[in-house]
Amino acid sequence: MPAPLSPIDKAKYVAARRASEFVESGMKIGLGTGSTAAWLVRCLGERVAGGLRIRAVPTSSRTASLAREVGIEVISLDEAKWLDLTIDGADEVDGNLNLIKGGGGAHLQEKIVATASDRMVVIADAGKQVETLGAFPLPIEVVPFGWQTTQLLVEEALIGLDVLGRTTALRMSGDAPFVTDEGNHILDLQLGRIGNARQLSLVLNQIPGVVENGLFIDICDALVVGHGDGRVLVRDLAEGGVSETRYALEGEDNIFTEIAE
Ligand SMILES: O=C[C@H](O)[C@H](O)[C@H](O)COP(=O)(O)O
């Protein structure tokens, strides 16, 4: 018997399960990266086994492996060119559905894929919702060449901007610098609070050596928030309003079933 899910895993699972219902046969979809997106890939794998026909562009090598493992057809973005829908997790999401992403170091591919989609849907547990972005360190992907110079330029560029802090740390993986799927490094920027996320994103992306930052401004179209008790709230910017779905734990095997719309 599988180990019981923690409340946070239940929240991620129900959010992913609800968002998987947006996927229809014939769609080309973008698959995000991270623990919440991994639930989505598993949910879609089940639907593919039941006859759903989709082609998917993963946003990382990790997601590509999982997608293939569960039987989803994987194609490249160049092959797909444009996608119907991308579903991905987030590290922070504010009231305007602006995001911080990249906690797993995948925000470069994630931003390219989400931008090449008709719609981006974010799936998250309730703890990811914030009033103002910035408590989560902002990931900045930088090329390895001269990364310490890039780090100084980043810290300097923040002087005068509406942020609380401006210290950066090179992300490590054990004793070595973390390396992204594109062969780059990540600087994690401790800001505390971001006053003007759009301005900050533009400033950062103009610095030589910076490849992409983890701010997603005006990219997300809908937010699906899961709760540990099985409730899921969907907020769609186009439709306005919030709809609620509730999933119930069935028996002892941690399988959720939808009980109400
Ligand atoms: O680089 C990683 C991605 O941006 C993830 O979507 C983000 O970090 C959220 O991950 P998780 O669902 O594991 O909290």
Bound molecules: ribose-5-phosphate
The largest sheet, given as strand count, sense and whether it forms a barrel, is: 9 strands, mixed
- Count of domains: 2
**SSE arrangement, N to C:** HEHEHEHEEEHEEHEEEEHEEEEEE
Number of strand segments: 18
How much helix is in the residues? 25-40%
Mean pLDDT over the residues? 94
Shape: globular
Uncertain residue ranges: 255-261
Our count of helices gives: 7
Which secondary-structure class do the elements indicate? alpha/beta
The gyration radius over C-alpha positions equals 19 Å
CA-to-CA gap between the ends?
29 Å
Secondary structure topology:
Blueprint: H1 7-20, E1 28-31, H2 35-49, E2 55-58, H3 61-69, E3 73-74, H4 77-80, E4 83-88, E5 92-93, E6 99-100, H5 107-115, E7 117-125, E8 138-142, H6 147-157, E9 167-170, E10 172-173, E11 176-177, E12 185-190, H7 197-205, E13 210-213, E14 215-216, E15 222-226, E16 231-236, E17 242-250, E18 255-260
Parallel strand pairs: 1-2, 1-4, 2-3, 4-7, 7-15
Antiparallel strand pairs: 5-6, 6-14, 8-12, 8-13, 9-12, 10-11, 15-16, 16-17, 17-18
Bound molecules: ribose-5-phosphate.
